[in-house]
Request: fold
Amino acid sequence: MADSNSDLEIVIGLEVHVQLSTKSKAFCQDEVAFGGTPNTRISPISLGHPGTLPQPNALQMEYAIKLGLALGCQINQKSFFDRKNYFYADLPKGYQITQDNTPICGQGIISIEMGKEEKSIRINRIHMEEDAGKSIHDQDPLHSLIDLNRAGTPLLEVVTEPDFRSAEEVAVFLNKLRQLVRYLAISDGNMEEGSMRCDCNISIRKKGETTYGNRCEVKNVNSIRNAKRAINFEANRQIELIQKGITIDQETRSFNAQTGDTLTILRSKEDAHDYRYFPDPDIPPIIISDERLAAIKASMPKLPQALKKALIAKGLSPYDAEVITSEKALADYYFSMLSFSKNPKSAANWLTNTIKSYLNEAQIGIEEFSISPKTMVAMIQLVDEDKINKLSATQKLFPALIKKPEIAPLDLATQMNLLQANDTNAMDEWVEIVLAKYPDKVDAYRKGKKGLLGMFIGEAMKISKGKANPKQLNSAFLARLAD
Ligand code: ADP
Ligand code: MG
Reply:
């Protein structure tokens, strides 16, 4: 890898395909879904029968514009669909419908956070297109099988400028893109199921050089981890060649997830396909009216960066704000808590610690969490108001409430006998019991071993079976021992 001492620099640009979560395909009403019995979600249009007419999907345009706005792109209110001609068994029409020179979204810019540094990544374009079918080569020894369920699935292709300088930057960007498509609810963003696939273009140049080196494109990488592996492998391969004085041929390569290698798959770019793009004569220009654009803008949810800022302004730490906004569902839960709570910090504390670790352990998302935000806040208030202590709350009441979320936390705490005794008589009694039990420790304390106070409080907590209020015990002991 190009280490920091090296005079070489890695340059990376991405082409990311995002599969949209529309109900129907890009140009017909076949259902969009993952997997299932092959060739069941097809029709004459996705099979490319002659004489059929494609009809663009209004949601695909809306989703493209939403992603464009989120990535700071210019929106082109007039754009066209083109035919990209090539022959392949899983493309029965003989062409893919895509956008060539007139994408729906033009240039944009998005910042990524690398530790404390912010870095801008320029977006070249976002265009709409359709997916091809799937060829399956490993199920029959003699034949390749074709499944056309995926043919015609709506995709967005996000093309970045070659602005990345390391695999880590790419990983941060892909994470952010996935987070955004989930916030916008335009794709599930599951790379493993192919909902986000990434082509990584990689080249090497001398640091300080203003032109780019020849690039290789690694196709269809299907996870963020594999994108990092593919980039690092490919960069090393090119660096070794360059250091031997060999020039890099522009070519398309594939990534082998088992070995971590990249391999040549197609002929080099010099004689690559000529796709003979031309405007699709069956589809009129895509016109987005001012009103429609305004309506889409108005329907945009608040995005993670803005939410994070708002939370920091409420007094949360940048870390808590980051954790809470990492997923939209978590942020939604938090804001719902805030509508019942006067204490944003303690709500954040509970969410990022106790609730989050429970969710991790149970391996569920916040959507499946049984306690409603309102009940959760009622429970937190019991602690904030000293009605029950924090330890009984996290270790006893919280787990019980998960099982019985319909019971009011105060009632449940009463049933479980967890309410903290705040009355001074009981407190004084516990203090006396402890002092009587440890006369020599009391002596040592009075002679200066002030650290024993913690032990006295601990003992009194035990005797009270966890019901004593530790803060009140603290002052009671101090007052009593000052005599
Ligand atoms: P095409 O594949 O149609 O020729 P482009 O040349 O615009 O398209 O680039 C496709 C992708 O390759 C973009 O993501 C771009 O950032 C990236 N790219 C272009 N040149 C380089 C390079 N020299 N090194 C790394 N990435 C590059
Ligand atoms: Mg390309």
In short: The first strand starts at residue 8 and ends at 19. Residues 17 and 429 are 70 Å apart (CA to CA). The pocket of adenosine-5'-diphosphate (ligand 1) is lined by residues 11-15, 159-162, 201-203, 212-213, 215 (CB under 6 Å).
